[in-house]
Design brief:
Number of helices: 3
Largest sheet: 5 strands, mixed
Number of strands: 13
Strand content: 35-45%
Structural class: mainly beta
Radius of gyration: 28 Å
Strand order of the largest sheet: 2-8-7-4-5
Distance between the termini: 103 Å
Order of helices and strands: HHEEEEEEEEEHEEEE
Length: 193
């Protein structure tokens, strides 16, 4: 008889008397991003769907990854989507976690994740010390356009690029502009040494 009672207790799920925990323990989800791979400097669409047994208001989804702030934004269990701006390089990823927000458990469980490579990103070439023509050619070859051209007193770079904005190595989407300042001599009576 004792063995029969133990079996009966073991068959009852721990969450049977807590609907919030029931959902968190049984939830399933999917998450996707379009396009995949994602394009640097553009928006991507993150879509998710989740379901569970006995969904209650105590149950929420937390989405983490670029474009989401998991500490301040939660979503109801179900489906949704959000457009996010891709400003990272390399690989980006998103996760769906179900959380039972009831004060008695606080249970959470990771449900699904997706990752995507970031494409369409190049880095700004170093054009400091180049002539304006050389700088324009180097920027064009890298997929950028020459932006504003200013001047600054720089005796080490007379008629050459003294500085650039953004700096060399900065990741930017193709077609972005890069501004330069061309070095010049100081106004007389000052002279270069």
């Amino acid at each position: 008889m004792a063995a029969l009672v133990a079996t009966a207790f073991a068959a009852t799920p721990a969450y049977a008397d807590d609907p919030g925990l029931n959902c968190a323990a049984t939830a399933t989800a999917t998450i996707s991003v379009t396009p995949n791979p994602v394009l640097y400097g553009h928006n991507a669409l993150v879509q998710w769907s989740a379901d569970c047994v006995a969904n209650t208001a105590e149950d929420v989804l937390v989405i983490s990854g670029p474009g989401f702030n998991p500490s301040t934004t939660v979503f109801p269990v179900g489906g949704g989507s959000q457009s996010v701006f891709i400003a990272q390089t390399g690989t980006v990823g998103w996760n769906v976690t179900v959380v039972d927000t009831s004060s008695d458990t606080g249970f959470s469980r990771d449900l699904a994740s997706v990752s995507a490579s970031v494409v369409g990103v190049t880095t700004v070439p170093d054009v400091v010390h180049d002539t304006l023509a050389q700088a324009g050619q180097a920027l064009s070859s890298a997929g950028y356009v020459l932006g504003s051209v200013g001047s600054v007193v720089d005796c080490d770079n007379i008629n050459r690029v003294s500085s650039q904005t953004p700096g060399a190595g900065t990741a930017l989407p193709a077609g972005s502009s890069v501004s330069v300042k061309i070095g010049k001599k100081p106004a007389p009576p000052a002279q270069c040494q």
